Amino acid sequence: MYVEGWNVHRVIRPARLANAVVERLLLRILEGEFPPGTDLPPEAALAAEFAVSRTILREALKALEEKRVLRIRHGRGTTVRPKAEWNLLDPLVLSVQLEYESSPELVAELGEVRTALLTLMAELAARRIHPPQRELLAVSLERMRVAVEDPGPFHDAAATFTRTLAEAAGNEVARCVIETIDVPYGGQEDNPAKLAETMKLRLLLAEAVHATVAAGPGAPAGSLPVPAPAASSSPAAPGTPVPAPATAPGAQPLRQGQVATVPLNRHGVRTPMQSARV
Questions:
Q1: Sheet containing 7-11: order of strands
Q2: How confident is the model at residue 94 (pLDDT cuts 50, 70, 90)?
Q3: How confident is the model at residue 17 (pLDDT cuts 50, 70, 90)?
Q4: Could you tell me if 140 and 205 are in contact, meaning their C-beta atoms sit under 8 angstroms apart?
Q5: Which of 18, 94, 138, 187 is at 20 to 30 A from 144, Cα to Cα?
Q6: Inter-helix orientation angle 54-66/43-50, to 10°
Q7: Could you give the CA distance from residue 65 to residue 172 in angstroms, rounded to a whole number?
Q8: What would you measure as the largest C-alpha separation in the chain, in angstroms?
């Protein structure tokens, strides 16, 4: 099994080959080649077009059915479902949309959800956090400060910050949603200036979240000093541990109703295969 267009000597396992077909099909659906409500071509035609076996193609179609992108009716064909029915939080569906469709509305909505969940977790953690978690939260925040101009370490530190916050809040569901929204960091950003700006905004949000936790339950609401950003992209991650002050100078607690949205980055998704054969 080889993939042409990347490296003709590269062997691709069936599962990975099916994933490549899933991504390619999803991209063509997003581009409008197969609009919602229309039927896909017959399996034999699609398998020949993608140069894969019928078994691989059926695996790919089944995966898209599980993501609620397709509706398979045996003996009646496969239909593209309306986007409103898709599982938008499926990592692959989300990745392809962010990378290839670049919908400002989707980016804005994800940013709002992410920030609101961080706000909620901060308020829960303010009541439930334990001393070791408080220390780790401060250390990971300091790593974010140190790595604010270094995307890879910044992302690692930000991930540690979010996990620690979720553990302190006692809400693993919120953590899973945020990690799904963030999508595995690909380190690919077309505009370094936008990347740097978004990393700084994410750091400001982390500072405000940490201030909320440090203030404890019932503390007076503060205002988050984050300007409303233009839709763009960005990542987040940690670096080298260095103990730091509990809160940066001027950071204010973040409370419900005072949510400042930080734009998400468009993470890299590997280019879909051009052709493959089994």
A1: 7-11, 2-4, 275-277
A2: confident
A3: confident
A4: no
A5: 94
A6: 110
A7: 27
A8: 66
